[in-house]
Amino acid sequence: MTGESILKKIVKGAEAILNRGTASANSSEHVEILHHGTGATPIEREKQHLKGIVPPAVETIDLQMQRCLFRLDALKENPLEQYTYLDRIRNDNPNLFYHLVMNNLKVVGEVTLVFQLHVANDFAPFHKATVSVIYTPTVGLACQEFSHVYTPGTVPGLFLSLADQANLDSVISNWPGQDPDICVMTDGSRILGLGDLGVNGMGIPMGKLSLYVAAGGFNPKKTLPITLDLGTNNSKNIDDPFYLGSKQPRADDKTFHSFIDAVMVALTKRWPSLLVQFEDFSSEHAFETLDRLRDKYFMFNDDIQGTGAVILSGFINALNLSGVPLKDHRILFVGAGSAGVGVASQLMEHFKRAGGLSHEDAKNLFWLLDSKGVVTSDRSDASRYPQHKTLFLREDMEGKQISSLVEAIDVVKPTALIGLSAVGGAFTEEVLRKMSENNAKPIVFPLSNPLTNAECTFADAVKYTNGSVLFASGTAFPAQNHPVTGQLLEPGQGNNMYIFPALGFGAALAKASKVTDNMVYDCSVSLSKQLNEEESALGFLYPRIDRIRDISAHLARDVILTALTDGVAREPQVLSMYGVRAGVPLSAEEAGDAAKSEALLHWVQGKMFIPHY
Ligand SMILES: NC(=O)C1=CN([C@@H]2O[C@H](COP(=O)(O)OP(=O)(O)OC[C@H]3O[C@@H](n4cnc5c(N)ncnc54)[C@H](O)[C@@H]3O)[C@@H](O)[C@H]2O)C=CC1
Ligand SMILES: CC(=O)C(=O)O
Ligand SMILES: [Mg+2]
């Protein structure tokens, strides 16, 4: 948007604000309007006895947003301050927070009105992307500092402690918010690539839920962040006088599972249709809980399923650009945890469904490298592999064990290198050069978060592959110029934030009885088709993040359609649109009805939260 059009919008908004209707004087509205601050109309101020309480100026939400941006810019050398500043706004004035976030997810090549007036044009777009503050990379820092920056009296979410296992009903009933539709739950045991942060991990459910609202369309009042306190094995937490969780070693596996079961029973007793997203659990627990609970509860695991779906989507586009037929790809994963195996499984599913490969043929295109080497059937620790690793055992290495990444590249000659190891810088100059020597267009995805854990930067990937790389990273990197042509290259962000808001929104709107594999897979394929003409021409793997709302609406619609064809949708309005009964699968042919699908899209869009006063 140009400075002139922003100005017009502000003037129009100021007229609207002066004309806005009266408000009744009930106490919750009083608080809400008080929180609009200078956005309260003169009439509202009169009726709600706010005169003198808010400053005299009457401002539009756009002007308030500009002030916030100005403040964020002033704080750009201190990301944690930016984060806490935004967090205060999120608490006090959610409408302003989401207006700000949604309008500044990513702004490229644009200078807003206030910046034109006050700031030189060197304001880097990277700093203006609110998503980088409320999500990765800054959320990682915010988690590490959670116990230090916590303001007593604020309610970041619900803390459920092992010590309260017998009283979970009563603890859950203390939640002061509205009945939630969506909850993100972590036990803080593997926060991004930062390890066990204990209850400091609360920043992750908060950040993910902000995206459920901004990108997906959930009502912020109906979101619930949960952090489970099962102890911590991080000595920094134990030694920290300010640590906000229990200073005990993590519970054993049996206690962990019994607590998770008790939590799920209590949550669904109180809120039967609540969708629970499991997030950042240590890998074995992530797989075990998903396997055990997925058919019993309305839940999914974001690190396994959301990440699998988002990376498959970018990979489908990279496959097309690579010029290498699907069956000739060789994919080397660096990292074989919840994310690595989740992504490998989703890619393999696609190779079977879209490429027509048998299970064995598809599996043979994958090599997984963990901290001890390539995962083979005859490695010395093979009998102790956790179950998830055994899905991708190499059985053809004839006793040869490979422990280094460089050696693995020499032996495997991968067309694609996927980093989910949390080892920052693992894709060295030598690694990247080898990928470039072996492939005309190497696929290199350093997906670990936050920024410091990324396996390589975009700058290095471009430099050491001479600009030929097909790239996506978990945390956004700034654009680079092609070393030969000088063309501006914009990197893709392969982060599950493109999937979970829409998968969750679609599943919740459908009132699905469960999240099926087909819903996850179709959400992924749908995302791969969302590139517009310009993005396709530029060779993007993912659409621009500032289009996320529109994209999420399409993805959510497709998730609902799959819930219908899987026979798990229960929302009466959705069922009646297609004339089916709950539990009766819709045929693929009926699901393909273009007019109905358009009507469903409009229905989804109409359900999306829009911040306003
Ligand atoms: N881009 C995205 O959307 C997502 C990114 N992630 C990131 O993926 C990373 C891993 O997550 P999880 O799989 O849950 O963690 P994890 O700790 O279970 O897995 C890490 C894996 O890396 C391996 N590893 C460690 N050092 C290694 C080395 N030097 N060489 C080769 N392998 C090595 C480990 O053996 C393990 O298999 C984290 O940084 C996380 O932030 C996770 C989910 C989504
Ligand atoms: C993005 C995400 O879910 C992770 O890094 O764990
Ligand atoms: Mg995660």
TrEMBL record:
PROSITE patterns: MALIC_ENZYMES
GO biological process, one term: malate metabolic process
Short name of any one Pfam family annotated for the protein: malic
Cofactor: Mn(2+); Mg(2+)
Binding residues for a divalent metal cation: 279-280, 303
Keyword entries, A-Z: Metal-binding, Oxidoreductase
MF (Gene Ontology): malate dehydrogenase (decarboxylating) (NAD+) activity; metal ion binding; NAD binding
Domain Malic enzyme NAD-binding: 304-564
Protein name, UniProt field: Malic enzyme
Organism this protein belongs to: Chytriomyces confervae
Higher taxonomy: Eukaryota, Fungi, Fungi incertae sedis, Chytridiomycota, Chytridiomycota incertae sedis
The gene coding this protein: MAE1A
